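no rush on this but wanted to send it before i forget. what follows is a protein written twice so to speak, once as letters and once as structure tokens for the fold. mainly i need to know what kind of three dimensional shape the backbone takes. thanks a lot i owe you, the record is right below.
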Amino acid sequence: MTVERLTKAAVAHHALRLGDEEGPEAVTIRRLAKDLGVTPMALYWHFKNKDELLLGIVDYALTGIQSDRSATDPWQVQLRAMIEALVGVMRAHPSLPVLLTSVEKEQAESFSRATNDALALLTQAGFTVEESYWAASYLLYGAMGLVAWQPGCPAQVPKGEEAEWRRQRRLGLERLPEDQFPMLIAFAGTYATEPDLDRYFTFGINLLLSAIEATAPATS
């Protein structure tokens, strides 16, 4: 990529991909400049330091997370769409949950816009602004948790070794004393096959949103 085409969005895109492939700790100005074939000074034009770079990645990744407040859909439908979009972005970019906890995310325009949209929807549900912020935070960190601790092999397990990892995990649980941990031993059987991640995320999102809908003054 030439310096002339090195836009802020392009830098953030490449940095996000690097973080996904090698972990957020691999994202540095020097490493990114090397991968892009430019000098570090070319990147400093867009990001003054690593903190600004990481914040730029978050801002770039969350650009599409927003609600359409002019839509006629009920608040529940719009809120679900936002959470599904957020989970989808984090599934596509596994470094994002870590980045969200390591930057001042409120300084990212896209994050503030998404938060503002969520507050607008939650106040429609009858929550106060303060309660809406609590609920929005619950949804954010719940979504992050769903992605960060999804079932299946850890990210560091090499490709092709997933089945063996699951087998060892199953055997470890099956060695537990049956009279003390019968349910864990029963759960061990789920490692016989790959987890159904789509089903898992649908279940998790339903679980998160059901709490909001059950406590919303407008629906109680």
User: Anything to note?
Assistant: The chain has three domains: 3-61, 75-151+207-215, 162-192. The chain has a mean pLDDT of 90. The radius of gyration is 21 Å. Residues 162-192 form one domain.
